[in-house]
Amino acid sequence: MTTIGIHDIELATTHNVLPLADLAAARGVDPAKFEIGLGQSLMSVPAVDEDPVTMGATAAARLIERTGTEGIRSLLFATESGVDQSKSAGMFIHGLLGLPQAMRVAEIKQACYAGTVALQSALGVIARDPEAKVLVVMSDIAKYELAGSGEPTQGAGAVAMLISADPALVEIEPATGVYSADVDDFWRPNDSTTAVVDGALSLKAYLDALSGSWDDYQANGGHPIGEIDRFLYHQPFTKMARKGHRELAKHTGAELTEDVLEASFEYNRNLGNTYGASIYSGLISLLHHDDDLAGKRVGFYSYGSGSAGEFFTGVVRDDYREHLYREPIQSELAERNVITFDEYVELHENVLPSQADAETPRVTKAPFRFAGIKGGARQYEAN
Ligand code: HMG
């Protein structure tokens, strides 16, 4: 039987970073609240010439450099911080990377859950044609109002994954559990650059969708909890994964230890929320920091406000260690430009009008940049 799953994966983030200790000092909050209470240390902040397209293009370019484009006939871009109401952000990436024209390109949205919809769609494409490969890109900027409750959970990042038959990293198993409920826990109106959130309701909705999707997973041939070795949760902040794990233990009556979560936190605690990319940046972190994953089953809980949950599993390939590339992302994380609180506020408030012509200052050192607006259209270029 053909196995299908994640063949290669890459992560990219922004030029700037803000230490949460500096945010805490400016807001008069005990830094332990962010570091321990939320489990977050740093947050990525985009430069004026970065956005979900530039981050997504960077992650995808790194991946394509290794894999080439042969067999890739679909590019699915998942985001909730889309740059246009009509044109897929994936189409800009298609242009920046010079991808073949014989390709289907589209954008998918359902808050942080969209990346998983893209992944599941890719699995379906390959089930029909095992020779096909799908490039899935998730890229987001998590932005809340200044001084609001969500402020310390902001962040930014992109993940690119190549989905194929006979994958080198993780085989995704067929059983999956899904859950949807119309809830106003978090949303972003069309005319707003910041999300609106009901914090307490968002925590409840996340946990309700977890038990709901777990029950559906069990009803559809899922593995018993004792057969799952590691757990990966959507991580709006890393502490949320602990809350999810405790909820799953309570719901199933199982004893679950939290040490199986740790390796998946290493990148996200230093990126902040990357929305659609978050669970998959957790996956890269797990693969990069846990040496004992060969043949292990990983449980994925993907959540998106509004609200949607999905629980499924993947099995890590025996020789996965030979297919990991830690260098680009670890250097990028370490070399980000540390900004002050005042610079962060200035960047937060600096929103380029969407229709007036403008050029952006050249700041990012990433391979692609947002150059500005011309004739009302967004312009991107290689850096
Ligand atoms: P808050 O009210 O500022 O914080 O908002 P809190 O008072 O609940 O404290 C947070 C934690 O810090 C608590 O721990 C405190 O005890 C602890 P907990 O009880 O939860 O384990 N604490 C301290 N710890 C150590 N030393 C101290 C200290 N003080 C307090 N001195 C909230 C928290 C998460 C609501 C807020 O950050 C928020 O609104 N975030 C945005 C929404 C969010 O991330 N929701 C998560 C679930 S929804 C989701 O994941 C979807 C999402 O990604 C969007 C999408 O799908 O597109 C957001």
TrEMBL record:
InterPro entries per record: HMG_CoA_synt_C_dom, HMG_CoA_synth_N, HMG_CoA_synthase_prok, Thiolase-like
Residues forming the catalytic site: 80, 112, 234
Top-level lineage group: Bacteria
Keywords linked to the UniProt accession: Acyltransferase, Transferase
Any one Gene Ontology BP term: acetyl-CoA metabolic process
UniProt xrefs under Gene3D superfamilies: 3.40.47.10
Pfam name, any one: HMG_CoA_synt_C
Annotated protein name in UniProt: Hydroxymethylglutaryl-CoA synthase
Organism annotation: Gulosibacter chungangensis
